[in-house]
Amino acid sequence: MRLLVIEDNERMAALVAEGLQRRSFVCDVAHSLAEAEDAMESANYDAIVLDLGLPDGDGVDWLTHRRRYHQMPPAIILTARGALEDRITGLDAGADDYAVKPVEIDELAARIRALLRRPGKRMQPMIAVGPLSFDVASRSARVGDKTIDLSRREADLLELLMRHAGTVVHRDVIENALYSFNDPVTPNAVEAAVSRVRRKLEEAYVTGALHTVRGVGYMLKDDAA
Q: What is the CATH number of domain 126-220?
């Protein structure tokens, strides 16, 4: 899951992004609304963490405009403005949730997961494809009683493929979901990640489920279908 953290305080932005990355999110950071617009033109985000007092405008006004004129992922406001009037204004402007600084990273991560579980969002708590199941909260995959040991990026890849089971997921979509702008990405990074996931699936006796569509991308299918 890829997030955009919009926060002008560089230290705060780094702490939030690093904390969320340790909790299995891919994070980009924007220090202004202009940077946020550029980032959203270049990548697709599952959710946004938004500060309000930004150097080139107010986050509430920006959020209202984005909701009215553009496609917009779920957004959680993270701000020092804790008054009831501020919270009401932010939620009425289109925020899906509102958190007041300082906030524990575990709570922020839980709030983001809750946003993505809401009806109409793409995230369900458990995904299953044939004998393979994936628990979104714990980031763990299982086949029956056997747990598959996955790195964060491998878990992100498997989740993405399971959510689109039976359809081809293009290589650039995978790269967009797995890597932030600051992550070093080698030319064969996606292929290597797919190879590792395929090997681990086969070790769990899920064979022939992960298919390569040469020149396009990858597809996960129920191998029992």
A: 1.10.10.10
* Angle at which helices 105-117 and 10-22 cross, to 10°: 70
The mean per-residue pLDDT over the stretch 92-121 comes to: 87
- Are the beta carbons of 23 and 155 closer than 8 angstroms? no
Residue 31's SS3 state is coil
Paired tokens of 170: 């293009």
| Lowest model confidence (mean pLDDT) among 65-69, 92-96, 98-102, 201-205 | 65-69
Q: How far apart are CA 100 and CA 81, in angstroms?
A: 7
**Secondary element (H or E) of residue 90:** helix 84-92
The third-level CATH classification (topology) of the domain covering 2-117 is Rossmann fold (3.40.50)
Helix/strand/coil percentages in the chain, nearest 5: 40, 25, 35
pLDDT surpassing 70 at residue 143: yes
> Which structure tokens are listed for 122?
């793409």
**Structure tokens of 182?**
């600051």
101 has a pLDDT exceeding 90: yes
Domain ranges of the chain: 2-117, 126-220
Please, what is the Cα angle at 28 between 27 and 31, to 5 degrees? Answer: 135
Gap between the terminal Cα atoms of the chain: 28
Q: What integer pLDDT is reported at residue 135 of this predicted model? A: 87
